[in-house]
Each structure stands twice: as C-alpha cells, then as structure tokens.
C-alpha cells in the first residue's frame, strides 16, 4: 500500500493504556530523535547557506560577500567543494538527536497531559493550552539546542574564513576552545527564538491537521507533511530576527568587528548599523530549512507513533 493511502488516527489515547507513562515518554523521545536525524540529513545544505547569509557583514566598500542564497550556495561549492555544504553536520546530528527528541516528545506528552486534565482529544486542545505545551517544549530543548548550534555555526563560518591549504577546525577543537560556559553562549537568544517558535508552530500544526481530518478524525500522511510545511514557514519567518541575533552572538568576533554585550545590545547594533531589514537576513533559506525539516520530522514521528501504537 502506498504511503499516500495510509492515514494517521488522531483519536485520543489514555496515558494509562497498554504502556506506562514513563515508557511511553521514552518511546516518544526515541521516535523524536529518529525524526530529527531524518529531517536534518535532507535539509542541511540549506542550513549552511542560511548561516553564511546571516553572519555576513558589509566590507569597506559597503558590499556583502554573497548576493543571495543561490550565489552563496554556488560560492561555497566553488571555494570549498560539495563537502563544504555539510561542514558541521556531525556535531549537528549529535545535537539534533536529543534536541528533536525533547522538542517533539515533550510537546506531544504535554498536549496529552493537558488534554487529559480537560477530558478532551489532544488534537482539539484549546489553543492557549496548545501554546503552553509548545512553550514547555521550546524551553526544555534549549539544554541540547544551544551547544549543538554554537558548534555547528562556528564550523560553518570557519570554512568561509580559511585560506587555501589551511587546516579546518574539527568539532572537538571547537568544543575544547569554547569550554562548558562557551557552549551556552547566546542561550537567552536561543530561548527567545525557540520558545516563541514552538508557541506558534505546534498549535498551528495541530489546527491545520484538524482541518485536513476526514469524518472519522483521520489525517493522511501527505496532510501531516503539508501541515508541518505551512506551520514551519509561518513560525520560522516570525522568529527570524531572534535567529539572526543568536547567530551573531554565537560567532566569534574577529579583530575590528563589534563585540556584542547581549541580546538587546546586538539587536540595537544591527538595526543602527545595517537597518531593520538586516534582522530578516536569511529568512528565505531559514523558512526553506525549517519547514521541510519539521515536515519530514513530523511525518517520520507520526508514522512511528502510528505503527508503535503510542
């Protein structure tokens, strides 16, 4: 049977049925980890382009190195080869496993818990409670997100600064240089990006799925994927300014470049020196990254949920 013909039931599941709450949460975490890896492998080159675009600053002539996403993509291949598009992939995969596991599983578990307290279907949870569940997931994931992203970003940016023949830093070298404290540099900015993202994304995704449900409450796999795409574009675009600030804070400043004292200072300096539009640098590749990432991740996650009967 083709995947398009399959459907995902959205009927409520009691936390006491068949599996204990703890075992069920562990399985959800495992499913979320697999879903995150699948999505990341598919969209990583776009993430590289997004990071390079967000970090670039005007040169002495008032010009940017990259003219846009396509030019950036071609420039990376010309200067660094196809492998350059996957720089920082390994630490990203190591980090994305717990990050997506926490994000997807905590949101799912929180929705089921809140739905149980209100005696409603988790897929028809009131929007304000859906936002609470999303915020909880966004807050919890940062413990894994921040270290993963700062290592990934520093490796992605390093490729643009190296001279021919110069050795490229490894993930271990970046981790050793940063230290434990450095791994959590920019955490407030990560929270200000991920919590609002989850507040917007998960309730939107749940609402869109209900619109696609048939008379029996079933949602097809293509509808799950499409709902993730649309919700991802909406949420990713909305929090792009926080993502730009986070990227600037987590990239090591070179001599002569501004040193930012925190989120508010970085935000003000970007607007003052580059204009408000700079806060949306990389918004197109970011949306092109996040929407299919969550589309594929949620499709994988819900398929596992269905076949494991969670």
TrEMBL record:
Keywords, comma-separated and alphabetical: Membrane, Mitochondrion, Mitochondrion inner membrane, Repeat, Transmembrane, Transmembrane helix, Transport
Compartments where located: Mitochondrion inner membrane
Keyword Transport: yes
Domain of life: Eukaryota
Transmembrane segments: 25-46, 219-239, 283-301
Ranges for the Solcar repeats: 23-113, 125-211, 219-307
InterPro entries attached to this UniProt entry: MCP, MCP_dom_sf, MCP_transmembrane, Mito_Solute_Carrier
Coiled coil: none
Predominant localisation class: mitochondrion
Family: Belongs to the mitochondrial carrier (TC 2.A.29) family.
Name assigned to this protein: Mitochondrial aspartate-glutamate transporter agc1
Native organism: Basidiobolus ranarum
Underlying gene: AGC1_2
